[in-house]
Hints:
The structure is a homodimer of 278-residue chains.
Chain A: E1 4-10, E2 13-27, E3 32-38, E4 42-47, E5 50-54, H1 58-70, E6 78-83, H2 88-93, E7 101-106, H3 109-118, H4 120-123, E8 131-135, H5 138-144, E9 149-155, H6 169-178, E10 179-188, H7 196-207, E11 212-219, E12 227-234, H8 246-250, H9 259-264, H10 270-273
Parallel strand pairs in A: 6-7, 6-9, 7-8, 9-10
Antiparallel strand pairs in A: 1-2, 2-3, 3-4, 4-5, 10-12, 11-12
Binding site for spermidine (chains A, B): 62, 86, 155-158
EC number (chains A, B): 2.5.1.16
Subunit structure (chains A, B): Homodimer or homotetramer.
Amino acid sequence: MEVWFTEDQTNDLRIGCRVREVLFSDVSPFQKVAVLDTVEFGRMLTLDNVIQTNLKDEFVYHEMITHVGLNTHPNPKKVLVIGGGDGGAVREIVKHQGIERVVHVEIDQMVIDVAKKFFPELSCGFADPRVEIVVDDGIKHVKDNKGVYDMIIVDSTDPVGPAVGLFSEEFYRSVFEALTGDGLFVAQTESPFFNSELIKQITATVNGIFPVTRLYWAVVPTYPGGYWTFTMGSKMYDPKTVVLDEAKIAALNTKWYSSEIHRTAFMLQPFVKELLPR
Amino acid sequence: MEVWFTEDQTNDLRIGCRVREVLFSDVSPFQKVAVLDTVEFGRMLTLDNVIQTNLKDEFVYHEMITHVGLNTHPNPKKVLVIGGGDGGAVREIVKHQGIERVVHVEIDQMVIDVAKKFFPELSCGFADPRVEIVVDDGIKHVKDNKGVYDMIIVDSTDPVGPAVGLFSEEFYRSVFEALTGDGLFVAQTESPFFNSELIKQITATVNGIFPVTRLYWAVVPTYPGGYWTFTMGSKMYDPKTVVLDEAKIAALNTKWYSSEIHRTAFMLQPFVKELLPR
């Protein structure tokens, strides 16, 4: 018998993965949650039938949504992660010795439970004493905490369903206020091949709120088209020109991120540059 | 009615594209040739059911397999293209005014005919008076022409079927001999996520033949995983350290390639660096 998982990446584009076993499938108050054992990518988490992460390529996304900002800010101590209940971002953050507190706000308890049970490789950071897990709405948490965080990471699903509010101007304004005076945030912001209007809109919005707005990129094979972007809004530090601590970065033991890749990630192709605010 | 084209990118990974119309489908002496009008990517060429190119993302591959080498060699005059019957590589090469002659050796007449009829956006370079199209075996052509070319581009299909010989040590030795004293070649060399052993093997082989061996990368959304590599073997010039002619590059009117992207393409992630010869 052949079992395949198929995701509609767009209306007109699909990815299919051969499945050894469906390890978990349930419906939370927010979404359908499933864990698949795939032949090509190993264990895979899907939410509402969209691939979130998998053991083969997760390192790219999790290293790039965390270390770029953490090495731009000279001394990040308090970090907030919104979404990303799989734990991959938290695992990377706690590699940084200067971090004093990581608040991880995930709206869906089921995702956290599934991560603990099926993805110990990702959720291992949850055990770090500096990490506090809060099951709550990230939008509310950001509104209720002003001037608290050195860095905020928006590790959201796509801008449909529960994550829509995480792509709004109102939310980015709340993020600005939740940051300390020299804080910065990073959000995942989709593909320039398939979501170019969204990237235009987000970078323009962030540019209207933050003194420094930067788009950067990496390749996540299981996301549509592979080419994936992140947007940083920063009150003070510029990730393009920051002097990197090479020894500290080498000690992170990463597979995608490096000081070279930090710099490279901000070099955008002409067709991507066209999406940015003038 | 819904019509979908599905490619098995690996045994365990598939891509599916919604099809408006099948414009052409036939069998040549070498392979199955098809042209599809897809909703997501526009017109698409497939060979033996594998996506070769499409109007939406072709610019990435064609710009990167040509301009990196053409801007590394200070004065390329004679260029050989093996494979790539769609014409996209030739279109980019003839943008360079110093080019005197482009010999395009494609084994399959049907691919050339299909490119002329269905892909004028790619095959437009065929009309340039400097271009000579030769329907022949690229391996044979390289053996028969020694010391002739400043640059050789190996625009092959995957290393199965008719293209197997284009990934062999014997072929790379013939390429070395077909080049002028300061010549260089570029070949497409697959994905580090899915073909890491092949990349190891090719870079080691080329490194045993050429004084300079360099792996570089780009993102082609319709190729497995998006992250795609190219390998350059060069007798003299190093693409990593060459001083680029910024004005000349800006005039190429490219969407992916730029002088910044030329330099960043050689910055490899730690997991890719591990594949290179020590």
